[in-house]
Amino acid sequence: MKPTNLRSVSASTEVSAGAASSTPTFSWDDVVRVSQPEFNPNDSSNLRGFFDKIKACNRGAELQSEFLPFVVEDQIVGYIHKGFAENLRSFEDVFILSKDNCDGGKVMLHQSLKSADDRTRAVGEVIKCLAENELIPGIRNELFPVTSSYGAPVFFSLERAAAPYFGIKAYGVHMNGYVEKDKQKFLWLGKRSLVKSTFPGMLDHLVAGGLPHGIACGENLIKECEEEAGIPRTLSSSAISVGAVSYSDIDGHRFKRDVLFTYDLKLPESFVPNNQDGEVESFKLIPVKHVANIIKRTDFFKTNCNIVIIDFLFRHGYITPECFGYLDLLQSLKSGDCS
What we know:
The protein is α+β, with helices and mostly antiparallel strands. The protein is 26% helix and 27% strand. The strands form three sheets. Strands 7, 8, 9, 10, 11, 12 and 13 form a seven-stranded mixed sheet that branches. A four-stranded mixed sheet has the order 2-1-4-3. A two-stranded antiparallel sheet has the order 5-6.
């Protein structure tokens, strides 16, 4: 497995930054071996490997002109690819595609849909139809709020799987669970279930999840902690909110505009995570310095997890101003519209 010219070790099957359709094959033994300093004794201390991971989450900026603004009550709430928008024309009692000689057009909701409930119902029926025609895969039956920015009024709620096809801003909570022992920090990592519809078998944080409509970030994190890692409320309530990261990724008809609220939780040495919802195959505790090597050297992590862990590396002093490109990398953690 050890290449002679190491740049980035990939999982044996390529997984896209959208919805993974193939399953990578690597074991925890592979992860540990690649993470060791001696795996590549000539490993550069520069930040190139981290920049590569940020770039992988921020593709396609030059393609934004292919998307139409999605406007509700005079507010831009998303962006819809012109090709995908053609699928909405036949639903003329729900969507209106206007043509404007000045701005190139936009997508709006029918004026008869005035309440959030009416919009949620009507759009939901369209999403159901599109899913049946395999135009929106991986339906989750989980609703995300549609809003112009975090904390702003919610215009309606949208099926999670449809969020990138409508280019709405999606929010999530990501938590780094760490342990301190022998004056060294370790991160708990999870390996996603092989039956997950997205990024099966890849590495993940200890806890992460989307932010559905109607639940606060802190309460959602506590719920995810219990479901994904068996962390009781007595421990998870001590998680510290440490900021947010963002990215903007265009892949075909999909436009992901994600903001991830980040948390740290210091766990006791005696704690061992135990998945409750079947979405995590197994866990492993790995030194933070070795986790940094995994990010730099491999494509083992679910793509947006790299950003959250790089943020952790900054905040805990593993990436310092002495590193060339420090400020550029720091700024790139908020490459998306962080609002």
